[in-house]
Structures are given as structure tokens and as C-alpha cells.
Amino acid sequence: MAKSNKPIVWGLFAAGGTVTAFITPVLVLLTLFAAMRFAPSLFTYESIHAFAANWLGKLIIFGVITLSLWHAAHRFRITAFDFGIRADLVVATILYIIAALGTISTFFSLLSIH
Amino acid sequence: MSSKPYIREIPKSSWFFRQPRYMRYMAREVTSFFIGAFTLLLVVGLKRLAQGPDAFQSFLDALRGPLGVLFCLVALVAAIYHSTSWFNVTPQAMPIQRGEEFVPGKLIVGAHYAIWAVVSLIVLIMGI
Amino acid sequence: MEIIQTDIAIVGAGGAGLRAAIALAEADPKLRIALISKVYPMRSHTCAAEGGAAGVIKSDDSLDLHFGDTVGGGDWLCDQNAVEYFINEAPKELMQLEHWGCPWSREPDGSVAVRPFGGMKIKRTWFAADKSGFHILHTLFQTSLKYPSIQRFDEYYATDLLVDDGRCQGLTALEIRSGEMRQFQAKAVIIAAGGAGKMFPFTTNGAIKTGDGMALAYRAGVPLKDMEFVQYHPTGLPNNGILLTEGCRGEGGILVNKDGRRYLQDYGMGPETPVGQPVLKTMELGPRDRLSQSFWHEQRKGNTVSTPWGDCVLLDMRHLGEKKINERLPLVRDLCISYLNMDPVKEPIPIRPVVHYCMGGIHTDIKAATPVPGLFAAGECACVSINGANRLGSNSLTELLVFGRRAALSAIEHIQSGLSNSNDGALAAQAKNSEDRIRALFDKRDGTETVAGLRKEMMATMEENAGIYRTGEELARACEKVSELRQRYANLALTDKSKVFNTDLMQALELNSMLDCAEAVAVGARDRKESRGAHQRLDFTARDDQNFLKHTLTYYHPKEPPRVEYLDVVITKSQPGVRDYSGAKK
Amino acid sequence: MSEERQIQLEVLRYNPETDLEPRFQTYSVPCVNEWVVLDALNYVKENLDPTLSYRWSCHMAVCGSCGYMINGEPKLGCKAFIHEYGDHIRVEPLAHFPIERDLVTVVEDFITKFSSVKPYLIPKEDKPISAGEFKQTPAQLMKFKQYTLCINCMLCYAACPQYGLVPEFLGPAAISMAHRYNQDSRDGGRDQRQEVIASHEGVWECSFVGACSEVCPKHVDPAGALQQVKVASTIDWYKEHLMPWSKK
Ligand SMILES: Cc1cc2nc3c(=O)[nH]c(=O)nc-3n(C[C@H](O)[C@H](O)[C@H](O)COP(=O)(O)OP(=O)(O)OC[C@H]3O[C@@H](n4cnc5c(N)ncnc54)[C@H](O)[C@@H]3O)c2cc1C
Ligand code: SF4
Ligand code: F3S
Ligand code: FES
């Protein structure tokens, strides 16, 4: 029997699931505040830039974003299947490409912030 | 086999209406869409940040509108549902055995909730 | 009719059948083994056994002690050479199960733990919490999956043995799913089809324990031995007969009557032992027959508690505490809560004696061989005579293993003894007869009797007349009634005319088996004019070694009651004595 | 406690010899409240309709024969108490299995899958019987004990939507049983089992719906076992591909 290659992504999915569980709600909450102009001081360019310019900050941002992306991509792949979309390979390819592009974009964005 | 067993078909795209627990499962799975979308939003935001203050400001402006608020609200519900459903099953996926006893699941879940609260609080304070 | 060629066919895939199959597969991988069972192996009733399996392992124990307990427990009706073989093999077999992964409960140092059991002088019962039989059965079933030479025929119902040229050469079985008959051609057959407790209405036995294996052999001319010895287990849930294991008492549970008195001290099992400190072979750890009989006397005296389900005494385990109950008796607690809505941690549980086990069965010698060459039997359906007049708790599970394996080895010896060629025509003709018999039952349209109706009458008869205490008069009535029911069986008509999974037909065949067994019980009991072990007569209250230190053998007759013969008990080193359960100090 | 109640028992009937498809048949059954649904079926069989077919044996939730869908939920007939239901109870054969007849399903698929995971001890080292037992402390026993409690009732298969959607999926009970042996301190057969478990049809078809554990009458928690298997298989994969030197 052929061994499945799902563990590659599943590791990222599981790690991402944990990270998002801890952090995403509060991030969304902050974004919501920003969207509601609730706490103008918060999303200032300076403060965020400062955070992202720091190596530790970069690492955190990279970790959170990429793991969340892979978590979501993998779970959504299965969700699509559960909704009756049987072209698993196509769905998986598209979703993983999106996740990969997001990962690359994040990487380069972070590189260019000094 | 001389008999002819009867096979009940399972509707491929509406099976989850059969039981409430399947609906709960699908709700959990669908959170991934919102978490994915929100994360992509962060990816874009980060890119704008890298492009300079003006670009970032226009990103924020685009966010500020009823649509942005609505999206954030829905994503918030999804994210919280994801967190709770994730924490509630950790003792199953990662049981901890101490000697002859397993650490009670409630304790593990409780610890996760506590960490969650602390992390959220720190980020919130930092953010504001 | 499809013919299936095999070397050895096993009827029954419970503990005994599976153990036999594995022994065959291990002995010679080239042997073709057909394992035939009317249910999937893990549904076999061995799964219900709770308490454990006896075998000498600890240093404070000895084979002699196990021998003494077993023979005395059996009221000296055991064949002592068989007992000796049994206790010698017992530890090896239990150890073998350990090596196959059985999750035995353990001591802190990692060695296997043992618990006390009724009638045993020393703790020697290996256990896996209170699901010992369950774990044994599943360990055996799962281990059997290792061996490709074991070919399973799940949900096949064996109907008749094929005996030609003076030896057993196969059997016929009905594939339940299709309703088709199959002929199994084999050089040897092992019957391991379990007990017959379902002859009685109130029993710990599952629906499948209908004595089919006994009836198979019986009809093929093998005598049934000591069938009158039917064991009542003293502690069954009153509403549905679910068993609360002897382990309850082994762990320290006590029996009290309506006044809270530990009444066992009034029946020769005293003096009273301190609560929570059970003393072996005394009070609550007396043998099952004695305990069940004490209940009967208490009931006569009006000392029982009345419940919606009849008179009961109380099993009190509260003093064991929640932790110990959860650890050692989790299933018991679960069963009490689920089926009686009572928690043994908080309240005493009403219980009453319930039909549990058949000491008697297919007559075999110490090698598990029946008088018909090529036919072997093991497990509860067999009577090698290690249980005598009363089986000790936890000897049966071990017996399945020891004699399951023994039957396998004997079958191989038989095959290797140079068998003449089979007369295929004669076998096919017999198989055809068997098919015709069942077809006739299936096709019959004008019958007046129903399966449920006859079964109810049989059960009522057995309960009323062949229970814990018996009289000659009642037993004569039972004989008459059962033989009448056997005749009325000819008038049975089935309602279900479908071939696929016809449980109406299955139950009709099972009823046939039970009626045959029931008659052997009744006749054996009527003619045994003494009281011994589980067979207690109010008109002959004493044991009579002069006339009845003998095995009853009943021989089948298609129309008439069975012929009864007697066979001497094998005594090697223990002369019949007094069964003493009165504790260390007298 | 023993009051009587008239129950409408609606049972799915199917006779392959005469029916094209299953249909419901309703029986009016006088039930005692402490009864289980199996008692009601037995009442029907004995008093109303001897043609009704279903499997059962132990009546104490240990043989695993009597799994049915009761009001849409996979249950053991002998552990579904009448007093937990209203006056209308619907009994169907276990979902996701072909119906042989009435409440009897075809279970070969489960048996085959169960057998395929090598659910038996593959000892680390050979040891003769005379050398005594493999030592195993209570703590080591505890590590896998829960997974030994499976009665093969297949309720988890009837609950698992992924098994329904992807019939090739090995399914909860089979994989939990493999996990049981993997976790056993005496066992050394994990690598052999992984070939089946880590395959496409193995543990990776599970999306952690969790329904299996919710319906399991023996609290085996197959869902937990499967997630643990995934974690271990993932670690395997990373070890194998990122640290090839760590392979023995
Ligand atoms: C509730 C309970 C608790 C017990 N607890 C203990 C205990 O703690 N310790 C102890 O030592 N003993 C105990 N016993 C006794 C012991 O469990 C049984 O005696 C033993 O399990 C019988 O095993 P077996 O292999 O002979 O038969 P079973 O396990 O009953 O198996 C019989 C097999 O024969 C098959 N079969 C029957 N008829 C046919 C047919 N016509 N065609 C094809 N196949 C057929 C069945 O399908 C089944 O596979 C207990 C018994 C009960 C009921
Ligand atoms: S895991 Fe539970 S539900 Fe599944 S077969 Fe085993 S006991 Fe039944
Ligand atoms: S329900 Fe099915 S999807 Fe997994 S967690 Fe249980 S096996
Ligand atoms: S009858 Fe055995 S599990 Fe229900």
C-alpha cells in the first residue's frame, strides 16, 4: 500500500491549528478595532514597522502567518471534499499554491522591512 | 453470496444535514475559510507595510468600512469557534500520563484556556 | 451441495475453538483448518466471563493445592487424572496468553496479579480487571488472525456430524446468510460449541448458548455425561440475570439478608469473617453450589428482600470504596448502574442465584477424545470431568485453553494414525439426509406449534422442576414434559420462509438442541438419587458414594427418552471426603 | 420502576428475496420501563412477528452483536434504555453497512479491515513460555488499556461520515486496535502496521469528526487514538525525510 504524503502538510496543519487557536482571535479583534477606528493608536505604521523590523518580530510574524495559512489551506482542502467536491488533487494543488505564495510573499515582505 | 444486500447511498454533498454533530463538525471545518482569508489579509497588510507608510495607510483605509467590519466580526466568531473546538480535543490527541493515571482532560483543556487568555491579554495590551 | 475439503473442522469459535485452531496452525502450518461458528468469533459467549482464570503461578501456591480445591469443589465427581493434567497445563496456557498480549492485571513490579476466588484456598485467579473472558477471547481471536491456515466460516450453523466407517469425517452446516447447506469433509472434527444455559429462563448465558454442540455429538451416538449438574451462580442481577462476578466477593463484598445478617454463617460457611477482609474458602468465598443453596433456604425462611423481580438477598460492596471498585470491578459498577439503576459504591445490590454453567457435556476422555474416533470436544460443551459436580469459579476459562489445545493435539494424532480412504458417496448421502431434514422443517406448512411457545414451556419446566433443589416427583414431571415437548416439536411450523438470514429457522434448530439437552438433564437428575454438588435432592439429601460416585451417561434416542448408564469416577489420590468451608478455626 | 408503556416500534425491514428496497414496519409493543430496545425487539420476535431478523447474544453490552441505529443514532440495542426514549422508537440497521436483511448488516468489510492492521502482539523479542511473563507495570498497562476495550460493535463506523463517504477508509476501530498494540510495552510491530495505517486508506482519511468517540459504548475513544497515530506518523515522516540518517 502506498504511504500517504499527507503528513507533510498535516504537521503544518496541526502546528498551525494550535497557533491560530491561541492567537488568531485576538488578532482579529485588534483588526476589528482598527476597522472600527476604535483605537487609532494601534495600527500606526510606526509601531508595527518597528515590530516587524526586529528579528524576533519577523520570526513571530512569519511563524504565525505561514502556519495559519497552511492550517487553513489543509483544512479547507478537506472541507471542500466534505462539501462533495471530489477533485481532491485539483483543490489541494490550488490551495497549497495559495499557501505557498502567501508564505513567499510574507518572507519577502519581512526581508524588505528594516 | 446468493443474497443481494441493499446499499444505502450517502448524499455526497448534503450528508452533514443528517446529524447535529455533523453540522458542528462542518462549522468547525468552515472556520478554516475565515482563518485563511484573514491570514491572507495579514499577508497583504504586511506587503503594504513593507511598501511604506502611504501604502499601509491606504490598506487601513480600505479596511475601514462596513464590509471590513462585517468580515472581521464573522472572522472573530469563526476564530473563537476554532479555538474552543481545538482546545477541547487536545486531551484526546495528546493525552498526558503521569504514573498510572492520565492527567484529567479537563485540566489539560483548562490549561489551554488559561494560556489562551494570557496570550490574548498580552497581545491586546501590546496592540493598544 | 457445495463440499468443502478440510483436514480438521472445528465447530465453535469461542475460547476453546480458537485455542484449538491456533494449536493446530502452530503444530503444522500445512494443515487445513476450518473454523465454523454460528456467530463471529468475538461474539462468542466467552466474552461475557468476568472474573478470571485459575492457574498456579505464585510461589505460595502449589499444584497440589489447586488439585485439592478442584476435586473437593467438585464433590469428588471429578476424574482426578484429568484434573491433574489440567492443573499442570494451566499455568503454561495462561502464560501463553500473556505472550500473545492478553492485558492481564499486574502487580506493581510488573508481574501478573492474582485474585481470590470462591472455593480456592489461595489467590490463584489471573484476571484482566473484570473483563477476563472478554480479553481472553479477543486475544485469541486476534492472535488467530496471524495464521493463514485458519479458514473461518463465520455465521455457519452446524447441523449434523457425518459419521461413516465408525469414525467422524465431517459435518454439515448451514450458511446463515444464504440459507445454503454445505458439507465439510474433514479427517477430524472438534466440537467447541459452548454451554446450554438457555434451557433455563433466568440465566447469565447469552442467546447463543443453546447446547448445539452437545446435541450434535449426542445425536451422533456420543453419550452426554453428568448433564444433571447445572451450576447456579449466586449473584445475578434480579431483573435480567446479568452476572456480577465472583470477583465482587473475592475483593471483599459481603452477602446479607433482609435483616443485614451475613446468613452464610448459618449454613456451615462461618464463622463470620471481618467485613472487607475476605478469608479464602469461607463465608462469601465458599463454593457456588453452597451459596446458591443457602439463598434457597433463606427464601424459605422469609429472610429475603422482596423486589419487583422476586426475592433477593443483598450484595454489599460499599465498604470497598469507590476507588477500589473502579479499579477492580469497573464493569460490575457499570452493569449495576446501567441495568438496575443502582450504584454499588452507594447501596447494596439485590441479587439472586442464576443459571450459569453446565458441568456436564459431551463425554470425552482426558485427551479430549469422544468414544467416536475422529470426534473431539473441548470447552463448556465437553465433559472431561475436571469440574465434577460443581465447577469452581475461574476453572472454566482455563479449561477452554488447556483442553482446546489438547483436542487439537489429539486430532492431529488421529489424522496421523493412518486413516482409510473415505467413502465419499456415503458421506454425501448423509449430508443429503441432513439437508432434507432441515428442508422438511423449513417447508412444513401445517404445523401448530411455534418456536417461542415450545421454548417457553421448556424453560418453565426446567425452572420449576430442575432448579437448585429437586425432588423425584418434580423431576419425573420434567422428564415427562420435556419428552412431550420433543414430540410436539414435530408439529412445528416456521413463519419465516426466507432463506436469507432466517433467524426463525435458527431458533427452531437451537430449540431442538436444547430439548435434547434438557431431557438428558432431567433424566440424569431423576435417576441420581443423592445430593452432590450442584445436584441437590430434597428426597435424598445425602451424598451416596456407595451408589453414585459415578458419572451419568445418557445415550440419545430419536423418539424415546435417553438410555442411562454409569461410569466409574477416576480416583487417583484423593478419596471422597467432607467438603469443608468453615474457615480455618473450627 | 416496572411500569408498562405502549411503544410504537418502527423497524426497517428488508427481505432481499421479496423486497426491492427497505420499508418501515411499525409494531405496538408493551414495554416495561427498565427494558432496553433489544427487549422490545425480542418481544416482537416472540409474540408478534417471528420473521424479524437481527443479531444479538449477550444482552450485557459485551459481545458487540446488537448495534442498530436507534432514532438515527448508532447504539447497542442492549444498552439503549426504553426510558430514555419517547413512545416512538425507530430502529434501523447500522448506517454505512449494506443491509443483508432487516437489521442484519454485511460486516465483512469491517472484519477484513480489522484483520489487515495486524491486531496481535508482535513481540519485541522472542521468549519461551517457561521463561515467564513479559514484565509490564500497571502504568505501562494503563497506557493502552483503554484501547483493548473495543467490542468490535462497529458503532463508530456507523457514526463516522468519512467511512460512509470513502468506503476504503480503514476506520476508527481498526486503527485504534493497531494503536493499542503499538502502545503495548511488549510489542515491537509498529513498523509492520504502519504500512497499512500510514497509507492513503489509513489514518489520513480521518478528519477528526470525533463522532466515533461520541458513540463508542466502551469509551475506547478511537478519535483520540487516530489523532495520536497521526502525530506519530507525521513525526515518522519528518524523521525519514529530513533526517534520513536517523533511520535504523
Ligand atoms: C457471564 C459469565 C461469566 C463467566 N465468568 C467466568 C469466569 O470468570 N471464569 C471462568 O473460568 N469461567 C467463567 N464463565 C464460564 C466460561 O466463560 C464459559 O464456560 C466459557 O467461556 C465457554 O467457552 P466455550 O469456548 O466453550 O464456548 P463459547 O465461548 O460459548 O463459544 C461457543 C462457540 O460455539 C459456536 N457454536 C455454537 N453452536 C454452534 C453451531 N450449531 N454451529 C456453529 N457454531 C456453533 C458459537 O458460535 C461460539 O463461537 C462465565 C460464564 C458466563 C456466562
Ligand atoms: S471503538 Fe468503540 S464503537 Fe468502535 S467498534 Fe470498538 S467499541 Fe465499538
Ligand atoms: S468519526 Fe471518523 S473522521 Fe475520524 S475521528 Fe472518528 S474516525
Ligand atoms: S447483545 Fe451483546 S452487545 Fe448487545
Automatic annotation (TrEMBL), chain A:
Pfam families membership: Fumarate_red_D
GO CC annotations on file: membrane
What InterPro entries does this protein's entry cite? Fumarate_red_D (IPR003418), SQR/QFR_C/D (IPR034804)
UniProt keyword annotation of Transport present: no
Mind listing the UniProt keywords for this protein, alphabetically?
Cell membrane, Membrane, Transmembrane, Transmembrane helix
Q: Which residues cross the membrane?
A: 12-35, 55-73, 85-111
Gene Ontology terms describing biological process: fumarate metabolic process
Superkingdom, taxonomy of origin = Bacteria
Give the NCBIfam families listed for this entry.
PRK05470.1-1 (NF003977)
Specify the protein name. Answer: Succinate dehydrogenase/fumarate reductase D subunit
* Native source species: Candidatus Competibacter denitrificans Run_A_D11
From TrEMBL, chain B:
Q: Which UniProt keywords apply?
A: Cell membrane, Membrane, Transmembrane, Transmembrane helix
InterPro entries given for it? Fumarate_red_C, SQR/QFR_C/D
> Which superkingdom?
Bacteria
Which Gene3D superfamilies does this entry report, sorted A to Z?
Answer: Fumarate reductase/succinate dehydrogenase, transmembrane subunit
Among Pfam families, the record links this protein to: Fumarate_red_C
Enumerate the transmembrane spans. Answer: 25-46, 67-87, 107-127
GO annotations of cellular component type: membrane
The entry's protein name is: Succinate dehydrogenase/fumarate reductase subunit C
Q: Which organism is it from?
A: Candidatus Competibacter denitrificans Run_A_D11
From TrEMBL, chain C:
Say which species the protein is native to.
Candidatus Competibacter denitrificans Run_A_D11
Q: Name one GO molecular function term.
A: electron transfer activity
User: A GO CC term?
Assistant: plasma membrane
Active-site residues, Swiss-Prot/TrEMBL: R288 (proton acceptor)
Report what the protein is called.
Answer: Fumarate reductase flavoprotein subunit
The answer to whether UniProt assigns keyword Nucleotide-binding to this entry is yes
Classification via Gene3D superfamilies = FAD/NAD(P)-binding domain, Fumarate reductase/succinate dehydrogenase flavoprotein-like, C-terminal domain, succinate dehydrogenase protein domain, Succinate dehydrogenase/fumarate reductase flavoprotein, catalytic domain
What's the superkingdom here?
Bacteria
Q: Which UniProt keywords apply?
A: Cell membrane, Electron transport, FAD, Flavoprotein, Membrane, Nucleotide-binding, Oxidoreductase, Transport
Q: Where is the Fumarate reductase/succinate dehydrogenase flavoprotein-like C-terminal domain?
A: 455-581
- Show the InterPro entries listed in the entry: FAD-dep_OxRdtase_2_FAD-bd, FAD/NAD-bd_sf, FRD_SDH_FAD_BS, Fum_R/Succ_DH_flav-like_C_sf, Fum_Rdtase/Succ_DH_flav-like_C, Fum_red_fp, SdhA/FrdA/AprA, Succ_DH/fumarate_Rdtase_cat_sf
Which Gene Ontology terms describe the biological processes this protein takes part in? anaerobic respiration; electron transport chain; fermentation
Report the EC code(s) recorded for this entry.
Answer: 1.3.5.1
Catalysis: reaction(s)? a quinone + succinate = fumarate + a quinol; a menaquinone + succinate = a menaquinol + fumarate
Residues binding FAD: 12-17, 37-52, 212, 380, 396-397
Provide the coiled-coil residue spans: none
Chain ranges of the FAD-dependent oxidoreductase 2 FAD-binding domain: 7-397
User: Where in or outside the cell?
Assistant: Cell inner membrane
**A Pfam family of this chain:** Succ_DH_flav_C
What cofactor does this one take? FAD
Which positions are annotated as binding substrate? H233, T245, H356, R391
* Subunit annotation: Part of an enzyme complex containing four subunits: a flavoprotein (FrdA), an iron-sulfur protein (FrdB), and two hydrophobic anchor proteins (FrdC and FrdD).
Family as reported in the entry's similarity comment? Belongs to the FAD-dependent oxidoreductase 2 family. FRD/SDH subfamily.
Automatic annotation (TrEMBL), chain D:
- What PANTHER family does its record include? SUCCINATE DEHYDROGENASE [UBIQUINONE] IRON-SULFUR SUBUNIT, MITOCHONDRIAL, SUCCINATE DEHYDROGENASE IRON-SULFUR PROTEIN
Which protein are we looking at?
succinate dehydrogenase
Q: Which Pfam families does the record cross-reference, listed alphabetically?
A: Fer2_3 (PF13085), Fer4_10 (PF13237)
What protein family is recorded? Belongs to the succinate dehydrogenase/fumarate reductase iron-sulfur protein family.
Question: Keywords for this entry?
Answer: 2Fe-2S, 3Fe-4S, 4Fe-4S, Iron, Iron-sulfur, Metal-binding, Oxidoreductase, Tricarboxylic acid cycle
User: What EC number(s) is this enzyme filed under?
Assistant: 1.3.5.1
- Annotated GO biological process: respiratory electron transport chain; tricarboxylic acid cycle
Highest taxon in the source lineage: Bacteria
**GO terms for MF:** 2 iron, 2 sulfur cluster binding; 3 iron, 4 sulfur cluster binding; 4 iron, 4 sulfur cluster binding; electron transfer activity; metal ion binding; succinate dehydrogenase (quinone) activity
What do we know about how this protein assembles, alone or with others? Answer: Part of an enzyme complex containing three subunits: a flavoprotein (frdA), an iron-sulfur protein (frdB), and diheme cytochrome b (frdC).
Necessary cofactors: [2Fe-2S] cluster; [4Fe-4S] cluster; [3Fe-4S] cluster
Q: Where is the 4Fe-4S ferredoxin-type domain?
A: 140-170
